[in-house]
Amino acid sequence: MARLNDNYLKLKAGYLFPEIGKRVREFTLANPDAKVIRLGIGDVTQPLVPTILKAFHEGVDDMGRVETFHGYGPEQGYDWLANTVIDKSFEPLGVELKTSEVFISDGSKCDTANILDIFDISNKVAICDPVYPVYNDTNVMVGRSGEADEHGYYEGLVYMPCTAENNFSPAYPTEKVDLIYLCYPNNPTGTVASKEQLAGWVDYALKNEAIILFDAAYEAFITEPGIPHSIYEIEGAKKCAIEFRSFSKTAGFTGVRCGLTVIPEELTATDAAGNQVSLNKLWNRRQGTKFNGVSYPVQKAAAAVYSDEGWAQVKEVVAYYLENARIIRENLVAAGIECYGGVNAPYIWLKTPEGMGSWEFFDKLLNECHVVGTPGSGFGPSGEGYFRLSAFGSKDNVEEAVRRIREKWGKE
Ligand code: MLT
Questions:
Q1: Is the CB of 41 under 6 A from ligand 1?
Q2: Of all residues in the chain, what percent carry a pLDDT higher than 70?
């Protein structure tokens, strides 16, 4: 009889977003007339902008002509897309990268999960708490943890609490760790790291021979000057960090699928014999074996994000979501609710009113306001008592949602 991977049985609940989806489906079945507003999962709602759509169509048309047809592409992505990303997205930050250091993929969720393939199971992993659940769950799946305790902390993983008390800026781990996940702008708290804070992490990683897995999926939402968009803006980061980027939130690609991972050639880890080995080479080998690249029309569409026209259009959509974030934040604050994030990120992280538990607030918000959000505790034990609202809805829906929330909880 085939044996399953027992590590999967350690995972306590269903993955957070399907669980929310299930509760919302049950509610809508029981209340078919309720106008439910979804501000839960960070899924974009605005269509692809015209320049991207045109490039996407052209890519599809190319596939219909023998002269321009594309079969398997390079597993690492087409050079023209990698070079465009380097020129338009990294060079303006003063970051120089080689084409071979950029790996185009079908999204950063997959990459942040798959990257574990190239690291030994013995590595000690540190994650923030609360955290994007993928970092936690994929480490459990590969067997890097024991069971979860009564709080939801898995034995063997190192958690770095991020709460209002420490300004959502985690303290360095007190034990030796090898891999550190950081996500800035942060999902779920919507907070950012300053250059000094990131420099602190780079310094820490270099001193402790650790590698930072830096998720920059939300960098396009940074509005304040001086906040780093890439970890490679910090000196020394190429020796200790892998960066993940995504077109999902930047350009509305959640349903299109495209992202990228940067692994500098100088980044190494040790093999069993203590030799320093290039992680870039290992990832290249991994992708060549397990991945067949992103489809040509999708990469054409992704390249169009960085054309002058495309970028101007994309920035407008980002500004639209950030305006939603402002509306949510200001209205909740006016209702006396403590809020964080939402300035350089599309997420608002709020303290649940009246000291309610996260899921208690989820149910109340759904049942009484017909608004869906994400319970903070779903992102980790330190998220208990917090709640996340996404700014990716339509403006009308966001306005209606905050009106309902103010009516229910506002003191005015
Ligand atoms: C979220 O809501 O946290 C994100 O949409 C999840 C994701 O990007 O996979």
A1: yes
A2: 99
Q: Please say whether the beta carbons of 344 and 221 come within 8 A.
A: yes
The model carries a pTM of: 0.97
Ligand 1 pocket mutation, candidates 41, 114, 218, criterion most atoms within 8 A of CB: 41
What SS3 state is found at 339?
Answer: strand
Of 280, 307, 334, which residue is a domain's last?
A: 307
**pLDDT for the residue numbered 13:** 65
Domains: count for the chain:
2
How would you classify residue 359: left for phi > 0, otherwise alpha for psi between -120 and 50, otherwise beta?
alpha
Examine the domain organization and report whether 265 and 366 are in the same domain.
Answer: no
Amino acid (1-letter code) at residue 187: N
Per-residue pLDDT tens digits for 129-140: 999 999 999 999
Give pLDDT tens digits for 275-319: 999 999 999 999 999 999 999 999 999 999 999 999 999 999 999
Length of the chain equals 412
Answer for the pair 228, 95: CB distance below 8 angstroms, yes or no: no
Q: How far is the CA of 309 from the centre of ligand 1 (A)?
A: 27
